[in-house]
Amino acid sequence: xxxxxxxxxxxxxxxxxxxxxxxxxxxxxxxxxxxxxxxxxxxxxxxxxxxxxxxxxxxxxxxxxxxxxxxxxxxxxxxxxxxxxxxxxxxxxxxxxxxxxxxxxxxxxxxxxxxxxxxxxxxxxxxxxxxxxxxxxxxxxxxxxxxxxxxxxxxxxxxxxxxxxxxxxxxxxxxxxxxxxxxxxxxxxxxxxxxxxxxxxxxxxxxxxxxxxxxxxxxxxxxxxxxxxxxxxxxxxxxxxxxxxxxxxxxxxxxxxxxxxxxxxxxxxxxxxxxxxxxxxxxxxxxxxxxx
Length: 292
Known about the structure:
CATH architecture of the largest domain: 3-Layer(aba) Sandwich
Helix content: 10-25%
Oligomer: single chain
Low-confidence stretches: 285-292
Strand content: 35-45%
Largest sheet: 6 strands, antiparallel
Number of helices: 6
Number of strands: 19
Radius of gyration: 21 Å
Structural class: alpha+beta
Number of domains: 2
CATH superfamily of the largest domain: Probable inorganic polyphosphate/atp-NAD kinase, domain 1
Strand order of the largest sheet: 8-7-18-15-10-11
Mean pLDDT: 91
CATH topology of the largest domain: Rossmann fold
CATH class of the largest domain: Alpha Beta
Order of helices and strands: EHEHEEHEHEEEEEEEHEEEEEEEH
């Protein structure tokens, strides 16, 4: 088995861990290859461009935070991905630095478990050519620099859902429900739920709430505005500036992401420890009293 290694090159701790991982592989004569930018920082020629690296490996290792994992998974397509948290939150990355080597050994011994995650697929025209983009977390259309409040028109399977006057619209998977959508007031959805959530950003309407829909639905979105251009982002990457009235289509992708599971992690525990779910916040030190 050959591993592709993708490193968050902005973090010294991730680069140090990559060197330790390469030495570990060398001792065991396990084949590996670095993504080009990672290799450049590590001063090694054992590399391939991220767009081509899938052709040279059987599995991926992501060394960084959730952003690095999202980046890696896009190029991994359906090959297994081991996410090692060298970041801050680490909600999606399943393994700590201390758990990395045991996770790799399980993969080498073929005694691992996979968490299969659904993705979104966006269809849009660029230079009059049809293009498709995938997103593991979310697809977001924002008002960008537009100075007024635009209206986002959303249809489900060809039928009008609603017209939202808002700063933007988020379409999130269950995986992405704990990301931008949650920050905008959307619900937390358990992984592997066969649903998407539509969450408006700062709606200028008291009656608007996020809505959870079947992931079998086909979503069409356009922006009703007299002028301006509106950013279309997939997992935080700008894909196109949309023109007024331009329509995009979003559906469930046929390509899934296969994350190597950490069987010692419990989803409810992750909510409590990473997102402080249900935790009471206390102000000041225990035993202190407020002055009158």
